[in-house]
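Open question from group meeting: does this chain pack into something compact, or does most of it stay loose? Before anyone orders reagents, we agreed to write out a predicted structure and look at it together. Recording both the input and the output here so the notebook holds the full record.
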Amino acid sequence: MRQKVRLFYYKYRCVFLPAVILIWAKTCFSYFIDFDLGVKGWYQHFILLINPMAGTIFLLALSLFAKNAKRGHRYLLGLYILSTLFLYANVLYYREFTDFLTFSTILGASSIFVGGENFITGTIALMNWYDLFYWVDVPFLFMLLRKRNSPLAEADERMFFSKPTGRKALICSLVIFLINLGLAEISRPMLLTRTFDRNYIVKYLGIPAFAVYDGVQTLKSAAFSSVPEKGDLEEVLAYVSGNHAAPNRKMFGLAKGRNLIMIHMESIQQFLIDYNYTDNEGRQWEVLPFLNELYHSPDSISFSNLFTQVGQGKSSDAELMMETSLFGLHRGAAFVKNADNTYYALPHILRCKAGYTSAAFHGNSGSFWNRNDMYQHLGYEYFFDAGDFMLTEENSTEYGLKDKLFFKQSVRYFEHLQQPFYAKFITLSNHYPFPYDENNDSFPQADTSDDSVNGYFATSNYTDQALEEFFNYLKSAGIYENSIIVLYGDHYGISDSRNKTLAPLLGRDEDSWTEFDDAQMKRVPLIIHIPGYGKGFESDIYAGQIDVLPTLLHLLGIDTQPYILMGQDLLSAGKKEIVVFRNGDIITPDYSFIGDNVYDSRTGDMIDDDNEVIYNEMEVLREQAKEQLTISDLILETDLLHYYQPIGLTPVNPDDFDYSRDFQRLKEAAYRAGAKNTSIYYQNNLLSTSILYQTNAPEQQSSAKP
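Structure tokens returned:
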């Protein structure tokens, strides 16, 4: 046996084989250290160990078709670096988003990372010391290939880098892949046709295979997404009709005619509500004192079990659900890929049905998440972005204007909106990586091994202070009493990869943390504040962001039955308590189906997989969840709303909105209104209400708008 191994080595030794083995080793390292793939049992572990081989051999085998060893070595090194770079990019992306890179994400990156500073800062924050393992071999391989008289290089000169060798390697990779796929199908039947979860593809087939699969799916979507097929509209309308939940008649129209102010709270999670951080000296710090007061106010309807359902579109997915009651895409962001679609969204519905003016405010560039284009198609009349504010190095973060200055500077435009209005404010100070701000250090940094976790509580507290200042202004300016104010967290701030570091601060043992706990951390606050209501309550109904739009429309007295919405009224007696995540996982008050496992939602205990009754019941609910996701995807990918017009609505004409001259357009609207002008500015006898805005922001002296 020893002799056979020696003969095999001398016959097939070459640089190609150690390159394959090194990529395989790095990929397996990432599986067990950086990725959480939910692998169970020896069989799945075996599949995990073999799945990098086929893709690695296939990619590196392309170098074997070179005309000679010297050129082939150059190609091999290039492909090796490319493979390592792609693996490492997935590692970094997964650490923050608990997901894998798709072609849609990569192609849309220019709309996500506006400018290089936030990209570089965020990337550095994701790196770990052991990342050296992913790159330390590259210079050694380079030196080995440069040494032309090494035994491995000489073996390549004699035997490799010819078409027969390349073909053999490709055939070998194909055979390994077919074996891999066969083993995967035994464990997960119909793997490539019935899953929304990218984790499954990577777990069973590997990252290279996933990249190919995603590329094929992306091309298919591009080729078959322009026009809906016959019967698609009828299928969607039938689903929406069956999914409709009638409004609660006692709540319907409760806020009719009021201004709607929506506050999109970046990275605020539900666990922060009523949470006190305890420092090393035992002193307790309330993270969100103002939001806690608002959450428990008799004028607020608050939700303790509302989950974020975002996909790769993150913040933009949250906006999409809040504005249209449609899910984000399975791959990429609808704000980027489907910005030109027809939508019947909240600002357009309110304008057509109740005469509302609409405006969005954000202290970052309008091209961030492609908002400039998308907002026009959603029907926003005005959009004030970074170009409309005074940004300085002192009053800004990597992602734009700090929240306290953002709200204060927004007043200059906000007070000119004709009432009733719908105004959306997007905060950003509480954005990953939650950096320390020496100008705003009234809240202590936490003491963990992760800087992002350490800074999260301080930046959340800063946003809380900014919100309190804004509410004080609303009251001083006379806007508060005639408004309904909705505050929601857009998505998690602490990602799954950091939850175990956070666990001790929540009184939990990191060693007992599970995927069920990760799912529970996707709760985000939703506060519907109606000044003067007096009958507020905290609802523990299980729901998601997809359900907010029909709830708000019913509170404003607008019937949702004519509209194509995926969600249900949170206040309706007919609301189904099932939360659908973008990957197809589901949560109900009784059980949660996360990955391959079912958990008791009350205790967090895993249900034995031999309990067929519960697993079968949850499998039925999961199929219903996938139907909902499929219907939503069909609407977006075929631009189906272009072929459907609800009664009383006309399609949005995006050319009606020129965001480059918003302030001038506000003045023109005031001139047309004449004596019927309903703006705050007009009602204040043409005097600005900016003087009423009080902030303790130390940067305000450098933030005056000329």
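Observations to bring back to the group:
The chain has two domains: 2-223, 232-437+448-461+488-670.
The CA atoms of residues 450 and 501 lie 7 Å apart.
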